[in-house]
Amino acid sequence: MSVEQTLSIIKPDGVEKNLIGEICRRFENAGLQIVAARMMHLSKEQAEGFYEVHKERPFYADLVSYMTSGPVFVQVLEGESAIGKNREIMGATNPADADAGTIRKDFAASIEENVVHGSDGPETAAQEIAFFFGDDGLCPRTR
Ligand code: ADP
Ligand code: MG
After folding, report:
1. 122-126 contacts at long range (C-beta below 8 A, 24 or more positions apart)
2. At residue 1, does pLDDT exceed 80?
3. Does 135 have pLDDT greater than 90?
4. CB-proximal residues (5 Å) to ion ligand 2
5. What is the CA(136)–ligand 2 centre distance, in A?
6. How large is the angle between the packed helices 20-29 and 82-90, nearest 10 degrees?
7. Ligand 1 atom nearest to CA at 11
8. Between the N and C ends of the chain, which has fewer C-beta atoms within 10 Å?
9. Nearest CA, atom 5, ligand 1
10. Among this protein's residues, is 41 annotated catalytic?
11. Of ligand 1's atoms, which has the minimum distance to the CA of residue 92?
C-alpha cells in the first residue's frame, strides 16, 4: 500500500448529465483527495494524443469525436492505492459488466459513452497527469 496519484476525467456525457458533484462526492467518500482540477473542451489533437494508445482500434475515431463533443472535467486524485480505488469506483469499461454501485453501472449509456476515465497503472497515471497538468500544476494538501 502506498499513496498514489491518478488522473480522472469526467467525460462529456458525465458533464452533460450534471454529474460532476456526484462523481467527486464518490471519490471523496472513498478517502481520495482532489489535488488538481480543470474544466476544458479538448481539441481533436488533444483527444487524439491522449488516446494515442488506442489509435489502431476500430473505435478510435468515434472515441475522439465523443471526447471532443463537449467539455470535460479533468482532475488528479491522491490517496492510498488511488489508481485501483478509482478504477473500482468507476466500474468495468462496459456498463453491462460493471458491478452494482459503480459510476458506470449507475450512469453509463454504453461501452463508449461511459462517463469517466481513470488511469490504469502507475506509468500511465504519471504520463496522463503530466499531459494535463505538467510538472507544477498540482496543489499539495497542506491541511
Ligand atoms: P477504460 O476507459 O475502462 O480504461 P479502455 O482504455 O479499454 O477502457 O478504452 C478507452 C475508452 O474507449 C473507453 O472508456 C470507452 O470510452 C472507449 N471504448 C473502449 N472499448 C470500446 C468499444 N469496444 N467500442 C467503443 N468504444 C470503446
Ligand atoms: Mg484505459
Report:
1. 122/4, 122/83, 125/4, 125/5, 125/6, 125/7, 125/83
2. no
3. no
4. 120
5. 24
6. 130
7. 16
8. C
9. 93
10. no
11. 3
Mean pLDDT of the region 55-70: 98
Average pLDDT over residues 107-129: 98
Cell numbers that stand for 75 in this block: 482532475
Annotate the chain with DSSP letters as a single string. Answer: --EEEEEEEE-HHHHHTT-HHHHHHHHHHTT-EEEEEEEE---HHHHHHHTGGGTTSTTHHHHHHHHTSS-EEEEEEEEETHHHHHHHHH--SSGGGSPTTSHHHHH--SSSS-SEEE--SHHHHHHHHHHHHTTT-------
Of 7, 117, 128, 129, which residue is the catalytic one? 117
Q: Share the mean pLDDT of the chain.
A: 98
Say which ligand is closest to the CA of 65. Answer: 1
| Mean pLDDT value across residues 27-56 | 98
Label residue 136 by pLDDT band (50, 70, 90).
Answer: confident
